[in-house]
Design a protein that fits this description.
Length: 147
């Protein structure tokens, strides 16, 4: 087995390399992600990802986060907070061999017209806020991303 997993956008001009051991896929059901994807945002957390490509564009999607996409074909590439090392890479960029849906966030915002059969860890908006608001406040006021 290769030590890395390689993926690319539809037109192939943006490539992403992540460790092969990163197989857990998360789904975000928040309204912003559903607007962006017309469904849940499916991603692999990989802060060490290497992203290359001249057509990579960045869109600031909120006061705290940005999203990367290919300016050539429009493929979604990543989501990340502007302050911090976290990086969620689009799961669809990679071959699906070995990938496993492990968790869902903003599950309380999921519309009724779809569901997943796989057993996953499900977190709601309050749970996410309790984890992330202190982290973002710490980073904003200290300029550090340690926590």
């Amino acid at each position: 087995m290769s030590e890395v997993r390689e993926g690319q956008c539809l037109c192939g001009t943006v490539t992403v390399t992540i460790p092969a051991a990163r197989v857990g896929v998360g789904a975000c059901h928040c309204q912003t992600c559903r607007r962006w994807c017309s469904g849940p945002w499916m991603a692999i957390q990989a802060p060490e990802a290497v992203i290359r490509g001249d057509t990579l564009k960045v869109y600031r999607s909120s006061a705290y986060a940005e999203r990367g996409y290919c300016g050539g074909c429009g493929s979604h590439i990543y989501h990340r907070p502007q302050l911090g090392p976290e990086l969620a890479i689009a799961a669809g960029l990679f071959a699906d061999d070995g990938l496993v849906l492990t968790h869902e966030i903003f599950h309380d915002h999921k519309p009724a017209f779809y569901r997943f059969d796989e057993p996953t860890v499900k977190r709601g908006a309050l749970s996410m806020a309790l984890e992330w608001v202190p982290r973002f406040l710490w980073r904003r006021f200290t300029g550090r991303t340690v926590n």
